[in-house]
């Protein structure tokens, strides 16, 4: 892997950084690394943290009481480890919402239960029996003429299912990691990367646009409920997120955000198992009726509520740089159908465990980190990195108007790609940091973490830091079943988290943060891209 790393990154910055590395190799604290490996692999508490966050307090939707309880538990847990922990409020976010119960049953002389999940911010429905109508195959004109009041509307076409002959879980192959390591810096990809993105968007747009138009027309007809079947998932795995508000302009994310606003009009919306969805469509296509009894009990706040980020500090002891920060974080909020295990209970449990490893090392060696180690658990990530962006705005300002604290952050490390073990780190285009991370990864090659790619990864909270010019990084993780089974699904539960992977990730995270805290200089920064080039609203992975 080292050879492919060296040959791939050809930029001057990298060459210069390597030259510097050759002369003054980046120091690695072997004693601390040995401790993290021993304590983190032999006496790990990461799965216990995860069980509290998921089995006891999951799911943790932003604005919900569950999330508040999980934040309280995390603050108490950090405090027991010797960190000074608190909740920092941001907001208002929107309405708090929780599903108390949701049932859907096909009626008639051949009744059957439907595996159905309510979308967040759907209003409740008292037990109602209603006719099911499939509009997926309707023309726009036929739909505009249809009477859907009081009906249960199936929005999409049936979806063909293919058997998972290749399995649903996987790890990165050496070839894939090699390709990542040899990836060219983003700017060098320029035309083809943007062209590829534009082509993908264009392809998706036609089908998506038609669906959005259909949804808008259906909403205006005020049916009893709108039901869909998600674009992936089968064998009982149902991918489901938030409801869209009526007449809400903009992207699905904006429509969902609007749904959480006080006073928003929302038609109850469900996602059901694709097998159940397809069966209803096939029966209706035979001209036979389908009648369903549906009941949805929810508890939602009238008005909009604030939410909080958990911020926990292990104070730095160095007179000169003790006031600077080595940061780690993950989002604690989740969607509602599972218990938010791989997204992102895993990242949160790893952050708590990495903080424990560092605090335990300091306790057993009677020392302090040089810089303050700050562990953060964000909320509002699924709705657009709302919590981490609020923190950055409050603490660090903007790239154009940075606060004093902006210059004090040595680096920020995020984890938010599921349960998979760390295979390396994305440089987010910051080639100057490559030799530093190469040295810090060396002790973990034997544990599967050796890849450095200059490429970037999006969609989560490190972008809040990266966007204002503070070095923010996300680790490369094995995909396992993240996209195929757990990410935003009802099967996102503790049982699909892999203990050995999370132990390894906690050790690597602890080591990177420790070295960032101990390093003489902060991690090199790259010039901030002009505002126009920065992706404003991305996020929510
Ligand atoms: Zn996530």
Quick structural gist:
The chain is an alpha/beta fold and 541 residues long. Helices cover 37% and strands 19% of the residues.
Task: Give an account of the 3D structure.
With 541 residues, the protein is α/β, with parallel strands linked by helices. The strands form two sheets. An eight-stranded mixed β-sheet has the order 1-10-12-11-13-16-14-15, with helices on both faces. The chain has an eight-stranded mixed β-sheet with strand order 3-2-9-5-6-7-8-4. A hairpin with a 5-residue loop joins strand 2 and strand 3. The radius of gyration is 24 Å and the shape is elongated. The chain starts with a helix and ends in a 23-residue tail after the last helix. Bound molecules: zinc ion (ZN). Zinc ion binds next to helix 11.
Number of helices: 16
CATH topology-level fold name of the largest domain: Aminopeptidase
* Rg: 24 Å
CATH class of the largest domain: Alpha Beta
Secondary structure topology:
Elements: H1 2-8, H2 12-23, H3 30-42, H4 46-56, H5 65-80, E1 84-94, E2 97-106, E3 112-113, E4 116-118, E5 125-134, H6 140-145, E6 152-154, H7 174-181, H8 186-220, E7 225-228, H9 252-259, E8 269-272, H10 274-285, E9 291-300, E10 305-314, E11 325-331, H11 341-365, E12 372-378, H12 386-395, E13 409-414, E14 422-426, H13 434-441, E15 451-453, H14 462-466, E16 472-477, H15 482-486, H16 499-518
Parallel strand pairs: 5-6, 6-7, 7-8, 11-12, 11-13, 13-16, 14-15
Antiparallel strand pairs: 1-10, 2-3, 2-9, 4-8, 5-9, 10-12, 14-16
Helix pairs in contact: 3-11, 3-16, 4-11, 11-16
Residues 331, 343-344, 381, 416, 460, 541 line the site of zinc ion.
């Amino acid at each position: 892997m080292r050879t492919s790393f060296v040959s791939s990154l050809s930029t001057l910055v990298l060459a210069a950084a390597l030259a510097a590395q050759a002369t003054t190799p980046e120091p690695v604290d072997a004693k601390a690394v040995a401790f993290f490996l021993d304590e983190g692999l032999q006496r790990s508490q990461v799965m216990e943290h995860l069980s509290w966050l998921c089995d006891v307090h999951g799911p943790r939707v932003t604005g919900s009481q569950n999330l508040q309880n999980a934040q309280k538990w995390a603050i108490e847990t950090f405090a027991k480890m010797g960190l000074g922990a608190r909740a920092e409020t941001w907001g208002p976010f929107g309405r708090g919402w929780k599903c108390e119960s949701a049932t859907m049953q096909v009626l008639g002389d051949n009744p059957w239960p439907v595996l159905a999940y309510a979308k967040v911010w759907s209003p409740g429905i008292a037990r109602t029996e209603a006719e099911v109508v499939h509009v997926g195959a309707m023309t726009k004109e036929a739909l505009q003429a249809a009477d859907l009041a009081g009906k249960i509307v199936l929005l999409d076409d049936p979806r063909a299912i293919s058997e998972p002959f290749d399995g649903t879980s996987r790890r990165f192959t050496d070839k894939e990691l090699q390709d990542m390591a040899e990836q060219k810096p983003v700017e060098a990809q320029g035309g083809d990367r943007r062209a590829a993105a534009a082509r993908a968007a264009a392809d998706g747009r036609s089908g998506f646009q038609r669906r959005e138009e259909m949804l808008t027309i259906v909403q205006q007809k005020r049916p009893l409920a709108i039901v869909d079947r998600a674009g992936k998932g089968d064998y009982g795995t149902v991918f489901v997120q938030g409801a869209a508000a009526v007449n809400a302009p903009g992207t699905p994310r904006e429509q969902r955000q609007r749904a959480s606003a006080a006073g928003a009009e929302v038609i109850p919306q469900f996602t059901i198992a694709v097998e159940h969805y397809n069966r209803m469509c096939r029966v209706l296509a035979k001209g036979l009726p389908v009648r369903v009894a549906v009941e949805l009990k929810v508890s939602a706040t009238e008005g909009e509520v604030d939410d909080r980020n958990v911020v926990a500090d292990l104070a730095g002891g160095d007179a000169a740089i003790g006031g600077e920060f080595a940061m780690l974080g993950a989002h604690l909020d989740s969607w509602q159908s599972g218990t938010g295990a791989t997204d992102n209970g895993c990242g949160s449990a790893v952050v708590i465990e990495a903080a424990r490893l560092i605090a335990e090392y300091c306790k057993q060696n009677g020392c302090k980190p040089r810089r303050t180690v700050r562990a953060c658990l964000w909320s509002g990530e699924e709705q657009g990195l709302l919590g981490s962006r609020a923190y950055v705005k409050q603490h660090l300002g903007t790239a154009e108007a940075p606060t004093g604290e902006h210059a004090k952050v040595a680096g920020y490390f995020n984890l938010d790609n599921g349960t998979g073990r760390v295979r390396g780190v994305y440089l987010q285009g910051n080639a100057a940091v490559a030799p530093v991370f190469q040295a810090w990864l060396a002790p973990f090659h034997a544990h599967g973490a050796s890849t450095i790619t200059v490429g970037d990864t999006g969609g989560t909270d490190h972008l809040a830091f990266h966007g204002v010019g503070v070095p923010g990084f996300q680790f490369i993780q094995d995909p396992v079943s993240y996209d195929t089974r757990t990410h935003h699904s009802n099967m996102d539960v503790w049982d699909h988290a892999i203990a050995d992977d999370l132990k390894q990730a906690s050790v690597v995270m602890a080591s990177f943060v420790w070295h960032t805290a101990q390093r003489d200089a902060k991690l090199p920064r790259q010039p901030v891209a002009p505002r126009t080039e920065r992706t404003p609203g991305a996020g929510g992975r």
